[in-house]
Amino acid sequence: MAIFAFVYKGLLKSVIWRNLVGALALVIAYYIPDRYWIETRAGLDKFLPYLFLLLMYAWIVFHNRLLFEDLYLNNRKRAYFLWALGVMVLGSTIMHFVLVYQFNQSETLSRILNYWVFTLTGLGIYVMFKFLHVIQDKPRNHVIRPEETAQFFSFLTNGVEKQIPLTEIFYLVSLENYVKVVTKHKTHIVRLSLKEAEQKLPESFLRISRSHIVNTRFVESAQAESLKINGELFKVGKVYKRYVEEQLNRNT
Predict the structure, then answer these.
(1) Which residues of the chain have pLDDT under 50?
(2) 152-251 CATH pick, 2.40.50.1020, 3.90.226.10, 1.10.1040.10, 2.60.40.60
(3) For residue range 120-162, what is the model confidence (pLDDT) as tens digits?
(4) Could you give the angle at which helices 15-34 and 48-62 cross, rounded to 10 degrees?
(5) Which of 38, 83, 162, 183 could form a disulfide with 168, with the two C-beta atoms 3.0–4.6 Å apart?
């Protein structure tokens, strides 16, 4: 159990390690049934399926993390569909010519169809993972937080405790295993999860999404789907909308 916890916290929570493990698992899963047939293929044909798998995995990560997350989830749906469709059509065309002229493959339709099917399957798994992750991060009423009389946000840096006055903090941003704390005078990078940081902050600090906590004292304007702080606009996560509205009304 301790080894599993170390692997999960130390490796799988890292985006790079998680994707390396995922790519390796995909290659192993394909090799198990393919080991009986690999010797029947000659030359580069032996490794062509594995190259295809790795390229597909790299494309799925690029599509999900950059195109889908940065465009579609930020309400730039038209740009997402144009980019995704354009890249996939271009990729299908390149794949056809490479298979025909570089590897002398006469039948390319099945691999091109696999390219589209794998992309949609990868997107489905990614959306499901994101949905479950958001549900797990949904605000819970039993989180123990400091009293509003607290004056500082405390954290350790190289074993030394540092304190930031709460009145100077605009907002906090999740950076995987770190948190970016943006203040009036300086930006700090703290080794904490956003959930751990939330537990150190009083209720005047409001979690508005999976990635952001804001100081409600600096809210300049509030809409149903966004908040404005220090001239910056922050999107409110879908599962947080009702919670954010209730907390803002209560604080007001």
Answers:
(1) 1-2, 4-10, 141-142
(2) 2.40.50.1020
(3) 888 888 777 766 555 555 555 445 566 666 788 988 777 788 8
(4) 150
(5) 183
Domain residue spans of the chain: 41-136, 152-251
Over residues 45-63, the pLDDT tens digits come to 778 778 888 888 888 888 8
